């Protein structure tokens, strides 16, 4: 059984090359973590005193303003960052999908990149060999798959990356935004694969600014604010508190299917 537990965890980033004058300006800003500048080296407190318990079957959306700590929290949950203070325990194999381009080599072909990216996400060579035709077909990239990745457009790269990501069998799936940049028809196709991917994942944490995406994949949510967990609960309850209105309200009485009234909280 997979699980992630975090106890009173904080993540600090000391900034050795910051200028004190620009720091004063930053202190007036609304976004970002808390900046402590009393010592000689300013420290950004990206996460502060986080306690969380996630278990098998959890489908958790992650919301919050820019710089609230969502990406840093995902990296803590992935075991990429160790807590500066506090503890974390991750049971299960993590597939971190933070940047669709990570693990891709521009100089090798699309086919070779499918293999490399799959291995990077924890699959074996054999598993990837059995999936490569299906992935190739999904991407609709045809002969381009034999060309080096550097010849691809942004949308073509995303197609390739989405093909690989949606083919894996993750125990713990951590998704950061960036699942965009493809045309609408392809996105509709990718959504079905994403749904299947989430269904076979043990545990999902998904940072996204779109209510629609969150409603499709998650039933719980964490609201991050200035490095703190401001709220952790049911998706609807958390989104309502975060946005100041209920995004599912219009359909509540007559229909269980949510019709959403807007995107993002920013
Ligand atoms: N590598 C780093 N070095 C220094 N500070 C960092 C680093 N990564 C994040 N931070 C700081 O930590 C805080 C949280 O950033 P994080 O990227 O986790 O926010 P986020 O909620 O994912 O934001 P966004 O929605 O804009 O992507 C911010 O104040 C940011 O400046």
TrEMBL record:
Family matches, as SUPFAM superfamilies: P-loop containing nucleoside triphosphate hydrolases
Entry keywords, A to Z: ATP-binding, Nucleotide-binding, Transport
PROSITE patterns per UniProt: ABC_TRANSPORTER_2
ABC transporter domain residues: 23-251
GO molecular function: ABC-type transporter activity; ATP binding; ATP hydrolysis activity
Any one of the GO CC terms: membrane
Family: Belongs to the ABC transporter superfamily.
Protein's name in the database: ABC-2 type transport system ATP-binding protein
Organism: Lentzea jiangxiensis
